[in-house]
Amino acid sequence: MAKILWLNWSGGGNLPPSLGIARVLTERGHEVVFAGRPEMVPRVDAAGFRAVELSQAYAQVGCYPQGHFMTRAACYLTSPAVEAEAKSVVEAEAPDLVLIDAMFPAALAQAPGFGVPSAVVIHTFIFRQLDMWRRIFTMFDGMREQAGFGSLPAVDALWQARERIIVTTLAEFDTAPVPGWEMVRHVGPALEDERHALPAALPWPEADATPLALMSFSTGFEQRSVEKLQRGLDALALLPVHVVATTGGIVGPGELVTPRNAVALSYAAHDPIIRRAALVVTHGGHGTAMRSLRHGVPLVVIPGLAGDQPYVAAAVQEWGVGRALAGDADVEAIRTAAREVLSDPSFRSKAAQRAKALAGVDGAANAADEVEAMLAARGHVRRCATSSAHAGHVGL
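Given the sequence above, the corresponding structure tokens read:
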């Protein structure tokens, strides 16, 4: 069996599916070790994996342009100090294969020198928002240059040089593939809960006929907004619904004025709530959107600051499975959209159609299959495993 090192960006939508893939690989007998910024370490430890802290994550943050909400992230993701440390960790760990988060240019730039196969892992669409990826990497590289460091290669070069690009969404949910990207493998969503997200006891019995709405925005500290959560709660306060708001640990429930028809929780497993839900109000994280659609539940999407969220919102609107609003949508706009989605059965019907495409798809298992195929190509013995349902969704 193989040792796999995961150079990780522990963003709100990145770490949970990574942990899901790691869980499957571990169940198949492989060892998975994560390396990342200090904030990642306790989350990985809690999931039962070994974590290597990249202690140089913010060593050069003072050189980066100050006042931008992504300053610390840009330092971690692009700085020469992190490049050097990532290379040292690979040398020390001596893995058989390296997985690299798509958002981690510093690690990707060093990958040609690792001496072992490596793959990029993307936890959202790739082709639907390829222009966004290029803009994001250009922004990060501009911040690196302002810090006085040399430019990194463009995203196309960083990604296409890897043996595989593993994308945890369905190919049919993405847009058409682009020539030259034959290394892309769509594996389907990897919908994993972290261990602190436990089933929550709600104050309303399951037999209660009142519609239930889940409201959940980002778990990334870069996107913390008490005000946005409060707008959402205020919008739903006057509707005939019960509301469960999860704050992801970045906003304390006590910071919110919770209306009488709502409860606010730091964390909760979303699947049991969404199974009861008539509506999900969210920031447009790919994982939350896919989890909602897997259960056939329509959405109202109010994009946050992450680059992919407007694209997820646009897809929701395009598919007719919900309504997309502006990121600064006011209380009345949110209330109007929620009322429309709850009252028009076409949204639920079209969400149910998307649920059929997602039924039985195990993105974590499919991603593990791709990793094992890479290992097998390098002479590692591959375990006998039955591919998960909807194997036809894998690849282009």
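The chain has a mean pLDDT of 91. Try to locate this feature in the token string yourself.
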